[in-house]
Design brief:
The chain has 150 residues and is of the alpha+beta class. Helix content is 24%, strand content 35%. The chain has 5 helices and 12 strands. The protein starts with a strand and ends in a 9-residue tail after the last helix.
Length: 150
């Protein structure tokens, strides 16, 4: 994992750079999605999440959840077309700051079954290429990542 100005950038994940979210492709054909460390830092402490229903088919760009933080309210957009198969609602009910504390682990948001992945994954970045793009963004925006402690 690369760390730059306190921001974690896991080189084994895929990133939708424009939407500032990460993707982990699972062995069962699903994909787990979450906010990047830079996204949770820029948004501040989460205060509320509203997930779309399990089974809901969503097109690329449509919202899988609505995120409300101390600084921002907006959609969590799909990086590709798919169906929601699981949401991490219980974890957020237990600790609304879980994505602030652990954005790449326990703070994941939704698990989806991609339905048009081959045609829609060309924009995803991974490895050194993703690290370099995020380093540029971190410098351009003056981001210094943090973890919520309380």
């Amino acid at each position: 994992m690369a760390i730059y100005y306190g921001c974690d950038i896991p080189e084994d994940l895929w990133f939708d750079f424009e939407r500032d979210l990460w993707v982990r492709f699972e062995a069962d054909g699903t994909a787990t999605l979450g906010m990047t460390d830079t996204a949770q830092t820029r948004g501040g402490k989460l205060v509320n999440l509203q997930f779309k229903k399990i089974g809901k088919p969503l097109k690329q760009g449509q919202s899988a959840a609505i995120i409300e933080s101390a600084k921002w309210v907006g959609p969590f957009p799909m990086p590709f077309t798919g169906e929601i198969v699981e949401v991490n609602e219980a974890a957020f009910r237990g600790d609304i700051l879980i994505a602030n504390r652990d954005p790449y682990g326990a703070g994941w948001l939704v698990r989806v079954r991609p339905t048009n992945l081959d045609a829609e994954r060309g924009h995803l970045l991974t490895g050194a290429e993703a690290v370099e793009k995020y380093k540029q963004r971190i410098v351009e925006l003056g981001i210094k990542c943090f973890r919520c402690v309380d």
